[in-house]
Each structure stands twice: as structure tokens, then as C-alpha cells.
Design brief:
Largest sheet: 7 strands, parallel
Mean pLDDT: 95
Number of helices: 8
CATH architecture: 3-Layer(aba) Sandwich
Number of strands: 7
Strand order of the largest sheet: 3-2-1-4-5-6-7
Number of domains: 1
CATH topology: Rossmann fold
Order of helices and strands: EHEHEHEHEHEHHHE
Structural class: alpha/beta
């Protein structure tokens, strides 16, 4: 019975990395609470995954999720939003929107859900390679929020260490997700360069010579959640094909 299995909560589960994580944790024998604001995407996950419709930019929705997730064994904060706009065109409103999901929600859920976890529980926050270096100025605000995720991950790792709960992060690079597709389309429109040329230029910087898959990210996240990484906390693991090595 699902009710008898350890509970894992995955945000941003309707697509991309979050979706791959939800399916991987299901396959590993966990009860999965899949959180997203896109109802259709959640419905596609199938009956073995429990959907939870929520907009994490809203405090009331986060309150509902915290109550439902209390005592869970794992939390993956994979929900995130991006707006690709030249840095000099960004407004305070743009930054506030990105902060609400990419930072505020991650902080809030890590703090409030993490303190209810049993010893041996673990949290993984999805950051980005852009948190470590300036990929392009059009994603400056997104990069700023993802750098904040790394900082809060380190701080919560210290805060929860005494209770036996670990907190780590992953930094994906170029991964084949709907978000990456949208970024390429937005950059293509703003720069007047074809999507194909932009994609080839980016992939040319990756030592392994290709983009990654959501499943490859999910595998690393599962490692960080599992007992195989029980001596790791406060770390950020690059999933970038060698693009970022620090």
C-alpha cells in the first residue's frame, strides 16, 4: 500500500527534472507526492503518484503543502521559473517573481518541512550551473536566485545536522527540458540568431559534447537522497557534462 511507504515530496513534478525525479522515486519504492501548478502534467504521472496542485509562489498553497508533507522522509525542491531578458531590461517586478518561486518557496519548504523529518531524512534543492558562473546576461536574475539556493542549502545543512537530516543541491547544466527549449526560443528572438545555431554553440562548450537528460539528473538526486550518500551534506553536485567543474 502507498500509505505504508516512506513519503517523498517533489515540487515542479509536472515536467522536466521534477517529473523524472518523481518517476525515479516511485520506481525506487517510495510513495511520491508530486507538486505542481500544472494539473494536466500531474495527471500524466499515473495513479501510483499522488498529485498535489499548488502554486508555490503563494504562501497559502505552501501552507497546505507543509501540512500534507509533515513527517516525510525526502523533499526535492525542483520547481523553478526562468525569464530570459537582457540584464539591463530587468525590472524589480521580474526579480520578485523569480525570487518568489526559486528562493522564497525553497527556503520556506526546506525550513518548515525539514524540521518535521525523521533522522535519516534528506532534502535536495535544484540549483543550476548558472549559479556558479555567468552563462549569459539574459539569465542574470535566474542565476542570482540559483546562487541563493546554494547558500541556503549550506546553511540548512548546518541547521539540520544535529537532527540527522541532510541537505544537498544539484547544479544541472544544459538539460533537455521544456525550460531549456523556452530559453533557446527567447534568446533566439532577442538576439536574432536561430535556435539551431544557439544550441550548437552551447553544446560546443561541453566536454562530453552533448546535453543531459532529466533521467540523468534524477539519478544523481536519488543518490543524494539515498543512504549511499549518508556522509554528504551541504554539497552541490554539478550535472553538466564537465561544463562546470567547481
Amino acid at each position: 500500500m502507498i500509505a505504508d511507504l516512506p513519503l517523498a515530496v517533489v515540487t515542479g513534478a509536472a515536467s522536466g527534472i521534477g517529473r523524472a525525479v518523481a518517476m525515479r522515486l516511485r520506481d525506487e519504492g517510495l510513495a511520491v507526492l508530486a507538486v505542481d501548478r500544472v494539473e494536466a502534467g500531474l495527471a500524466e504521472l499515473g495513479p501510483e503518484v499522488q498529485p498535489f496542485l499548488a502554486d508555490l509562489a503563494l504562501e497559502a498553497d505552501r501552507d497546505r503543502l507543509v501540512r500534507r508533507a509533515a513527517g516525510c522522509r525526502h523533499l526535492v525542491n525542483a520547481a523553478g521559473i526562468m525569464r530570459a531578458r537582457p540584464i539591463l531590461d530587468l525590472t524589480v517586478e521580474d526579480i520578485r517573481l523569480l525570487q518568489s518561486v526559486n528562493v522564497e518557496a525553497v527556503w520556506d519548504l526546506t525550513s518548515r518541512v525539514g524540521r518535521t523529518m525523521p533522522a535519516g531524512g534528506s532534502i535536495v534543492n535544484v540549483s543550476s550551473a548558472s549559479a556558479k558562473f555567468a552563462v549569459t546576461t539574459e539569465v542574470a536574475a535566474y542565476a542570482m536566485t540559483k546562487a541563493a539556493v546554494l547558500s541556503l542549502t549550506r546553511s540548512f545543512a548546518y541547521a539540520f545536522a544535529a537532527s540527522g537530516v541532510r541537505v544537498n543541491a544539484v547544479c544541472p547544466g544544459i538539460i533537455d527540458t521544456p525550460m531549456q527549449d523556452r530559453v533557446l526560443e527567447e534568446l533566439s528572438a532577442s538576439r536574432g540568431v536561430s535556435v539551431e545555431a544557439l544550441s550548437a554553440g552551447r553544446l560546443g562548450q561541453i566536454p562530453l559534447g552533448r546535453s543531459g537528460s532529466p533521467d540523468e539528473c534524477a539519478a544523481v538526486i536519488w543518490f543524494l537522497l539515498s543512504g549511499d550518500s549518508r556522509y554528504l551534506t551541504g554539497q552541490s553536485i554539478n550535472v553538466t557534462g564537465g561544463w562546470v567543474t567547481w
